[in-house]
Amino acid sequence: MQNHQNPIKKIAPVAVTAFVAAMLVGAFSFTTTAYAAVTFDPTTGQGFVGKGDVQIAFNWNNKQLQQNAPGVSFEFESVTVTEREWTCTNDRNQNEQLRERETTTTTTGLVDSIARERNQITGFNLLGFDGEPTESSTTDGPPLNSCPSGPWSLTTPAGDPEVISEESTVIAVFNGNEVALN
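The structure corresponding to this sequence follows.
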């Protein structure tokens, strides 16, 4: 007597496993908005923002972008974190202590722009800063080149600041609504 096993019974467990795996992947995937045509130089304020990026930011169709473009403006925020290190030595036992001071500098400002048109608006040229950017800093750590009290002395002074991280964001603004583009 031949053993005839139903092929569905062989395939069904595999299909169920694949389906569950696909559902789990879908449940843990996240949608991110890609801003493909944003370029920006935080030292000059110059760059370009594509019309599609503004459309996505404000959920506009092309007609709405063409109508609202004169009211769109751009701002920027740049955050730079730097660190400086120095070494202190204990005169009694030659133990060394590495000390650090971190500074976070935030620069914000307006960016002058003009719509780029070729029969219709295709994007926005960022022409540079509109006025002087505003800069603020916060510092965390001991005073520069300081050592603990007692028998400690400075043996290696702090060098130049080392950039730990640097991030710039272009922000589209329309009717008081601000949306980061990158």
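The longest strand covers residues 96-118.
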